[in-house]
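Researcher: Good morning. I'm working through a list of sequences from a screen, and I'd like to move beyond sequence-only analysis. For each chain I'm collecting a predicted structure so we can compare shapes side by side. This is the next one on the list. No need for commentary yet; just the structure.
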Amino acid sequence: MNETPMTWTVYLSGEIHSDWRERIETGVAQAGLPVDLAAPVTNHEDSDDCGAVILGEEDNGFWRDRKGAGVNAIRIRTLIEQADVVVVRFGDKYRQWNAAFDAGYAAALGTPLITLHDPGLNHALKEVDAAALATAETPEQVVNILEYVTKGHLRR
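Model: Good morning. Structure tokens for this chain:
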């Protein structure tokens, strides 16, 4: 039997402006993979405002952002530490410094890392990709990797 008898936790980090998470979620469900998906808060406003709303507003934008980053890091670090695999998506529209940090954090923990981005970002992300065990160009490739590692099934 090729299937690994466990449920894998896969953390999906990165850009929030496209449907890549939904495509992975749909593919995982359609393939019947033993995978639980986790992610940061993807509502941009909530992610930006959480520190100020919960801990109090700040006059200085630096400290407002710092509060939000700290509160978000509680969720992000915990989920990355619990993950069996981390997938980090880099889009070409915005700079995702937080995604690069998540990739480095996963690599430092020794957690298997898959990067996901268009070929046009290969040069810019060469160091991040060097830390990854796989670099995919589409969410469907990520699903195929997850199918292979969880079920031992190779799609041809």
